[in-house]
Specification:
CATH topology of one domain: inorganic pyrophosphatase (n-terminal core)
Largest sheet: 7 strands, mixed
Distance between the termini: 14 Å
Structural class: alpha/beta
CATH class of one domain: Alpha Beta
Number of strands: 19
CATH architecture of one domain: Alpha-Beta Complex
Mean pLDDT: 93
Low-confidence stretches: none
Shape: globular
């Protein structure tokens, strides 16, 4: 059952924002709903400035890490960097390499090979990093390493200093000589640092390094414009789905502006190949569905260091050739994903049609796409789904849930039988011996049934503001744009309008979607689209209430205002 919910914001606070910030009633209301308590905080939210970010040296160990890197620059020591293979890790690696090159230090770098070396800072990855070229003096791990205790001991025992910059939770104590920059492990109460992903922390590290080098009167530090590196920070921040509040919001908002005008040849080519029209600005959706998947595909199917090389490249021919290669990886990933999804669905239809919780196991399923397949299977059947691939005697994979069913709670009863697992209510990673899969599948089905029997499952749609169609115009959209970029903890507003009438029959396209139009009380026409709702088209000439998002539909050199329908109901239905 779908429930519409609307909780009015603090009325006095919304009125104050409306008056003091001279913004629209709706934007003032949306600011008040976001837990912002003062006009100054609201101003910073609407107009974040790089000059107002927190001193990087407030982050524990960051100053010591910057000093060690500065020492390596002075002594011309060899640095090797190991970054993770997702967008956060790739952009972190590219950013630090680019900064160090400005100081005439040319570090080598690797990204773990997912299939051969596993996830993060593994022994195999560390060995390869240490063996490639002359022995390094300093090893820097980015977006990995917090829990790599044995690997840290191996690196430091080789006579190499170790810095780890990471944002993952700690499960073990690293060797004392390791310099760990991780606000989740060492927290001084700076809440904004706690939400940074690794590329945000690397940006802070670069900021700290510049402060030190400028104090030393190093002209190279004065020649660096940190703002120009926020294109990379915005990509990692948005792809890693961290909360877009405080510094993350600053990095994402300014970074998207920098990305739209980036001078990095590699990123310009990648955006071109990905179908991103930077002249219209770059949106979070461009990172999530166009640029990010192509970077991730290189790490899932091949070597993510290719993506790092692309970002760092100034060669137009190489950049275009490599961008096309990443695009090819992404299409290959899509083909693998479709084949695996088809096989998973065939398995379910043959043996699990009556199950409430779905578990499928594939002999040769690629571990890099099991999460995507789990998401597709879960949506196809509207049931929690676990998709596993065989790796020797182990079954490893991912799970995805549906609204209302908490996977962490469901799996907790089988935790002692699992080799490893973790995640959050809607998505988990999981591994177990292959011979446990049948037992687990029976358990998972029953556990989901028990959960459904004891919980009320509803899909909740939160209405951010009720508005009239007459309020929607170019000025309204410009005001609304001040709240961008939307993402975690800054959701795109969902608007409600009561008693509208569709007078012309909606047009179905591509079998699953439909277009419609509405007229406001002034006779003005507003166009809308409903994705994947062709089986549920409202009757014409009947009053309905609608929930929708407002977007600009950009094509060629035109921008057209459009309503994206999320849900509708009869206007006679109870609130």
């Amino acid at each position: 059952m779908t429930i519409w919910e609307y909780s009015p914001p603090p009325a006095e606070l919304a009125k104050r924002f409306h008056k003091q910030l001279r913004t629209s009633r709706v934007v003032a209301e949306l600011l008040a709903r976001r837990g912002i308590e003062s006009a100054e905080e609201a101003r910073l939210f609407l107009d974040p400035r790089l000059s107002e970010i927190v001193d990087p040296f407030h982050i524990p160990n960051l100053k010591d890490a910057a000093k060690r890197i500065s020492q390596a620059i002075d002594n011309r020591q060899r640095i090797v960097i190991c970054g993770d293979y997702d967008v956060d890790g790739v952009t972190s690696t590219a950013l630090l390499v680019a900064i160090l090159r400005k100081f005439e230090n040319y570090p080598s770098f690797i990204v773990p090979l997912r299939l051969e070396e596993g996830y993060g800072l593994t022994q195999k990855a560390a060995e390869r990093a240490l063996e490639e070229g002359p022995a390094p003096d300093l090893f820097i791990a980015l977006d990995c390493g917090t829990n790599s205790v044995n690997e840290a001991k191996f690196i430091t025992s080789s006579g190499c200093d170790l810095i780890i910059v990471d944002h993952h939770q700690s499960k073990a104590d690293l060797p004392q000589e390791t310099l760990l920059v991780n606000p989740h492990v060492f927290n001084n109460g700076d809440a904004s640092a706690m939400t940074l992903c690794t590329v945000g922390l690397v940006f802070k590290l670069a900021h700290g390094l510049l402060k030190l080098r400028r104090d030393m009167k190093d002209q190279r530090a004065f020649d660096i414009t940190l703002r120009s590196y926020l294109d990379l920070v915005s990509m990692g921040t948005l792809a890693d789905l961290v909360p877009l509040r405080k510094e993350n919001r600053t990095f994402a908002k300014i970074g998207l502006q920098e990305l739209a005008k980036t001078k990095r040849q590699g990123l310009r080519c990648l955006m071109q190949v990905s179908g991103v029209n930077a002249s219209h600005g770059v949106k979070p959706v461009d990172i999530s569905f166009k640029i990010g998947p192509r970077i991730n595909a290189s790490g899932r199917l091949a070597d993510a260091s290719v993506a790092v090389e692309l970002i760092l490249s100034e060669d137009p021919s190489y950049s275009m050739e490599t961008s096309l290669k990443l695009d090819s990886f992404n299409r290959e990933r899509q083909d693998i994903e479709k084949e695996m999804t088809d096989e998973a669905i065939a398995q379910i239809d043959a043996t699990q049609a009556d199950r409430c919780g779905l578990v499928v196991l594939g002999e040769n399923w690629h571990p890099g796409v099991v999460g995507i397949v789990a998401s597709r299977v879960s949506k196809a059947y509207n049931r929690p789904s676990i998709v596993l691939g065989k790796e020797g005697d182990m079954a490893k994979g991912s799970g995805r849930s549906i609204d209302g069913i908490n996977l962490v709670e469901v799996l907790s009863g089988f935790a002692d039988h699992l080799d490893s697992w973790g995640g959050h209510p809607m998505a988990v990673g999981i591994s177990m011996p292959v011979d446990k899969v049948d037992e687990f599948a029976d358990y998972f089905d029953q556990a989901v049934r028990d959960f459904i029997a004891t919980h009320e499952l509803n899909k909740i749609l939160d209405i951010h503001s009720w508005i009239c169609l007459e309020e929607i115009d170019t000025n309204f959209m410009s005001d609304l744009a001040k709240l961008e970029p939307f993402g975690q903890e800054n959701p795109e507003p969902l608007f409600g309008t009561k008693g509208v009438v569709i007078k012309k029959r909606p047009v179905v396209f591509k079998d699953h979607h439909f277009k419609f139009s509405l007229r406001d009380n002034q006779g003005r026409c507003l166009n809308g689209v409903a994705w994947k709702m062709a089986e549920r088209i409202p009757e014409i000439n009947t009053e309905i209430d609608i929930l929708y998002r407002l977007v600009w539909n950009s094509f060629a050199n035109r921008k057209v205002l459009q309503l994206e329908l999320v849900d509708w109901r009869s206007a006679r239905q109870l609130q």
